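Suppose a colleague, Dr. K., hands you the sequence of a protein chain of 301 amino acids and asks what its three-dimensional shape might be. Before reaching for any lab equipment, you can write down a predicted structure in token form. Begin with the sequence itself:
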Amino acid sequence: MDEVLVTVICLTYNHAAYIRDALDGFVAQQTDFRFEVIVHDDASDDGTQDIIREYRRKYPELIHPVFQDENQYSKGVAIARTFLYPLIKGRYVAFCEGDDYWTDPLKLQKQVNVLENNPGVDICACRAEVRKHGVRAGFIAPRIKDSLLSVEDVIVGGGNYVATASLLCRTEAYMAHTPMRDVMVNDNVLQIQCSLRGGMSYMGDCMAVYRRGVPGSWSERHPSGDNHDRLYRMLDALDVWTSGRYHNAIVLRKRLYRSDELLRSNKMAMLYPGELRVSIRRLCRHIQRRSIVIYFRLFDK
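The predicted structure, expressed as tokens, is then:
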């Protein structure tokens, strides 16, 4: 067990109220291989760093902190590429931000087993529980049972198709530089580029929790739609790079983003028949909040 097989990346900022759950989830992992946890704290000022230091003292072989004196995210620094890539030792990388956590002590072992047994697949995800203000608010689960999700599924599903805390991927695929990353670097790009070789392996087991509505979280600072222009350009870069292989899925994903924009404007939703499977849950959330006019376009021009 000398070789580090998995590197866990945990990004945190002012997560003092939550970080213990994340760290406890890492410490609880039961594996037949060695893994490490890199915790990057982006200059927290709420005591988060003190908690990380506490766990570092207790688990010096496991927890490896990277502390910033100044907030790097606000400067537009690509944190993973700049600070973390050189530190990664594992052949696999797992992710869990400081306000999320894992609930299954066998999560890493199960997901590594999946990818070890499927050498043509580069990424594995699992079902994740959504919690808001401490209360269960649903699940992020594209399927009910274990499945192999196609590249098209991942593209059309968008960034919230699976939870980031549920992911484990091959380091080579994670660190690969693709044209999409020239446009933007986010979880959506990660999911797509790691799926391109053989799809995404999905596990029906619920092994992670995604907290929604955490003050100062990435999703709170970037409401849905803030980056649609860059998302369109990222998808265009993907389309060119893959020589149009996934063009239909890319077009469909763009239509779903436009439908979101119309929903937020309180006007209407444009739903194509093939989009209903992806859109209906999102549509219901908007219907609960406001009255809207829904326009079903039955035929493409």
